[in-house]
């Protein structure tokens, strides 16, 4: 009879499959059971062994494949059967991903676990949009908040550092309220702001403006979205390395294949260099 298994909470990164860590990919390739979020890139799911059980536990507005209680129960059940379990989460497991809560469940049950950090969308998506979250002249610190549930509680608007960078995850549906709260608490309506959807992927789109108009400019966009507010946003036009990649080359073969498949799906013409085949 097999003893207790092992649970790995693995961060898949923000979207681009090439941004998963080496250790995270190694865990995925030896998994016997994988519980994965909704927005995991298909190329990462292809790395799961064919013999492994794959369970979609993704969540989206108004629809959950599994409740959090069901996810917890699945983690415990498979670990108690001696399985190598990977809980594959978008971004980083401990950044608004309920990774801490899931680890508490495992710890309370005496199940061994390991956390494999991932690249958080809070820093990666701004980077892919050409926005450094810190800059010697413009911002010495950045703050990350969630805009997922909106009731005004949990965010100390009065004491958010106005001179730095504010990154809001899962806040697209409440962008108007967020901008209003910030301006009501002393932020200038002319503060630069940007919204990036489908960040780090071939479908990435960026809209920029100011606190006064960003909500209007972002109308029609759909999540996942990362909002960046602060003086660093003004650097985007100069540093937009990813958005202006048309006609350029990339040494990242995973990114190249991802872009190739997406463009081909849209029935557009695309050519692969020999090194990317």
Question: Topology of this protein?
Answer:
Elements: E1 6-11, H1 22-29, E2 33-36, H2 42-45, E3 53-56, E4 59-60, E5 63-64, H3 68-80, E6 84-89, H4 99-108, E7 113-116, H5 121-128, E8 142-146, E9 165-169, H6 175-184, E10 192-197, E11 205-210, H7 214-217, E12 225-229, H8 236-239, H9 253-265
Parallel strand pairs: 1-6, 1-7, 2-3, 2-6, 8-9
Antiparallel strand pairs: 4-5, 9-12, 10-11, 10-12
Shape: elongated
Q: How are strands sequenced across the largest beta sheet?
A: 3-2-6-1-7
Query: What is the highest CATH level, the class of the largest domain?
Result: Alpha Beta
Number of strands: 12
Radius of gyration, in Å, reads 20 Å
What does this entry show, briefly?
The chain has 277 residues and is an alpha/beta fold. The chain is built from nine helices and twelve strands.
């Amino acid at each position: 009879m097999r003893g207790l298994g092992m649970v790995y909470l693995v961060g898949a990164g923000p979207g681009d499959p090439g941004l998963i860590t080496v250790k995270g990919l190694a865990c995925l390739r030896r998994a016997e059971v994988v519980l994965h979020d909704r927005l995991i890139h298909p190329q990462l799911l292809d790395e799961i062994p064919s013999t492994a059980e794959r369970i979609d536990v993704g969540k989206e507005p108004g629809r959950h494949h599994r409740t959090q209680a069901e996810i917890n129960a699945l983690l415990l059940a498979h670990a108690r059967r001696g399985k190598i379990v990977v809980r594959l989460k978008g971004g980083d497991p401990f950044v608004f991903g309920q990774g801490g809560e899931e680890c508490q469940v495992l710890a309370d049950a005496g199940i061994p676990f390991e956390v494999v950090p991932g690249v958080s969308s809070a820093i990666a998506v701004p980077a892919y949009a050409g926005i450094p979250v810190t800059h010697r002249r413009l911002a010495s610190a950045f703050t990350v908040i969630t805009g997922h549930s909106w009731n005004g509680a949990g965010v100390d608007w009065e004491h958010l550092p106005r001179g730095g960078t504010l990154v809001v995850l899962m806040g697209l549906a409440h962008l108007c309220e967020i901008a209003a709260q910030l301006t009501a608490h002393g932020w200038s309506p002319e503060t630069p702001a940007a919204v990036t959807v489908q960040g780090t992927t071939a479908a990435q789109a960026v809209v920029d403006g100011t606190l006064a108009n960003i909500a209007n400019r972002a109308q029609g966009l759909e999540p996942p979205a990362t909002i960046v507010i602060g003086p660093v946003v003004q650097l985007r036009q100069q540093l937009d390395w990813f958005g202006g990649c048309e006609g350029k080359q990339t040494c990242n073969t995973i990114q190249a294949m991802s872009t190739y498949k997406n463009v081909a799906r849209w029935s557009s013409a695309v050519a692969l260099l020999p090194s990317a085949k």
